[in-house]
Design a protein that fits this description.
It contains 22 helices and 10 strands. It has helices at residues 22-32, 35-48, 84-96, 108-123, 132-140, 147-157, 181-187, 194-204, 217-222, 232-241, 243-247, 251-258, 262-273, 321-326, 334-371, 373-378, 388-395, 399-406, 439-452, 461-470, 477-486, 492-495, and strands at residues 52-58, 167-169, 176-178, 295-299, 305-309, 315-319, 410-413, 416-419, 427-429, 436-438. By secondary structure, it is an alpha+beta fold. The protein is flat and about 90 Å long. Helix 15 (334-371) packs across helix 17 (388-395).
Length: 502
């Protein structure tokens, strides 16, 4: 123990911790919501918070009523003469004026307007599209089939996947595998032979759209080749033996094996590309995302821009005077009154957060539009490099506020509808002029270079890099490859037109 020394040190330690108030958290959440999600959020709060009620009409102008001097984080205070907190509510009641009102009673005109809107919405609901199975089954009635054949063909149709293939998925690997005739015969429910199933499939394969009922891509494409198809035999040969060669533009390889001239092969490939490898996909339910702009930017007669939020149909909310009056009831136990006060605070926070969202979105959008004026005047190729830090400094907010403000937000401009994030991005410097050039402009330049190349000898990515250098732009080869692939531009080998060879 003599060699062991024990030492105790007492030293002060400072620990910095950041506590974000619930009010701030709610403001950030509201700011990040796109307009449709904001509407849903407000509707939910209206249902869950009794202190909130909806005003008549919709938001067309920002609220101008200043929030009263009220600290929602202050604890409940009591003294001998009464509850000071609820005494202050009398002052709040006076200050808020239009925000506090008696029980909301919509007018006849308002009720009629809501009824008209509901009717209009119901009329605009798209009817369910016809499914692939329904489309095919309806055609069976036009074929000369016995009742048993009709029923078996309908059974086969029920096993087609969304693309129109007779495929299922392997239980172990999850990979698509053809549905066997044996499985169809065994599961049909009536005694049928494999020949019966094969006949039923042949009936299905005669239906529209051509190509349904195939077990793989080659069969699907072959079903679409008819005697009227130009170069039908050559197209069949391409499907059976050269799909990979076609994908990699290896026309000399195809010519060597089939003996046709390059012009004929190229023409046959064009007809092959007209075939549909997923004939059933057109009947799939629409999954397209409809973009609802949060902001509309319009050009004025004096060539300026006006910025407006698209929140006309966002419910306008206020604090209910009726429930504020209930808070004055001294008969509530402290716990109940504390819960009511939380709801009261939350209602104030929501109103404030909505207004803060409006102001922030308008300020951020105005700063973006000011910086990207050339984009709106001349087109996307004139977009400038822009970082969120620049907008944050200009507006006077933190960069995370800008990030939340532009997240999932869309703006409608005279040039079209764009994501607000589209206006941000880095770039490079033009060595000849010293000006900053956005990556969006680099993409446009890449398209120009590709459009002007000799298709008999298309540029490699390294040659494209050299073309950028001649234009005074320093762009790495890997960046060229990245943007070429992002623009779905094939490689130089795939772009090569072999028919132009001399």
């Amino acid at each position: 123990m003599s060699g062991m020394h024990m030492r105790f040190d007492l030293s002060p330690q400072m620990k910095l911790s950041q506590i974000i108030a619930p009010r701030m958290i709610q403001s950030m959440e509201i700011l990040q919501l796109p307009v449709m999600a904001l509407q849903e959020k407000i509707q939910t709060e209206l249902q869950e918070n009794p202190f909130l009620e909806e005003k008549e009409g919709r938001a067309t102008e920002p609220e101008t009523v200043a929030e009263p001097d009220f600290n929602p984080d202050a604890p409940l205070k009591h003294d001998e003469t009464g509850d000071l907190e609820f005494a202050r509510m009398d002052e709040i009641n006076k200050d808020w004026g239009d925000h506090f009102n008696e029980e909301h009673r919509p007018s006849r005109a308002s009720l009629e307007e809501q009824s008209d809107k509901k009717l209009e919405a119901m009329m605009n609901i798209a009817s369910a599209p016809e499914s692939l199975q329904d489309h095919l089954t309806n055609q069976l009635a036009f074929l000369d089939l016995t009742p048993d054949q009709f029923e078996l063909a309908e059974f086969v149709i029920s096993h087609l996947d969304d693309n129109g293939y007779l495929l299922s998925h392997d239980a172990d690997s999850g990979k698509p595998v053809p549905v066997s005739f044996e499985d169809l015969a065994r599961n049909f429910g009536k005694p049928v032979t494999l020949a019966d199933v094969e006949d039923a499939l042949s009936f299905v394969q005669k239906l529209d759209p051509a190509g349904v009922g195939a077990r793989d891509t080659k069969e699907c494409l072959l079903l679409q080749v008819t005697p009227e198809t130009p170069h039908a035999d050559l197209v069949r040969g391409l499907i059976l033996h050269h799909l990979e060669d076609v994908a990699h533009n290896r026309l000399p390889v195809i010519q060597k094996k089939c003996g046709a001239d390059l012009a004929t092969i190229k023409d046959a490939i064009e007809h092959l590309k007209c075939l549909d490898p997923k004939p059933g996909a057109r009947f799939a339910a629409e999954s397209a995302k409809y973009v609802v702009p949060d902001i509309i930017v319009t050009r004025t007669d004096d060539d300026d821009f006006v910025i407006k939020l698209t929140d006309e149909w966002t419910p306008r909310v206020r604090v209910s005077k009726r429930y504020v009056e209930l808070l004055k009831d001294k008969s509530y136990d402290p716990k109940t009154r504390e819960e009511l006060q939380k709801k009261f605070r939350s209602a104030h926070w929501l109103i404030d957060a909505i207004e803060q969202r409006r102001n922030t979105l308008i300020k951020v959008t105005r700063a973006i539009i000011t910086h990207q004026r050339a984009f709106l005047d001349k087109g996307p190729e004139f977009i400038l490099p822009l970082k969120m830090e620049q907008i944050a400094d200009q507006v006077g907010v933190h960069v995370t506020t800008v990030s939340r403000a532009v997240d999932d937000k869309w703006v409608e401009t005279p040039r079209g509808v764009f994501s607000l994030k589209r206006f941000f991005g880095g770039g490079t410097k033009n060595q000849q002029t010293g000006e900053n050039v956005a990556w969006e402009t680099i993409k446009q330049k890449l398209l120009e270079i590709i459009a002007e190349e000799d298709k008999a000898h298309p540029y490699s990515d390294e040659e494209i890099m050299d073309k950028f250098k001649i234009a005074g732009l320093t762009v790495a080869r890997r960046t060229v490859t990245k943007y070429r692939e992002a623009l779905n531009i094939p490689s130089s080998r795939q772009r090569k037109d072999w028919t132009l060879q001399t």
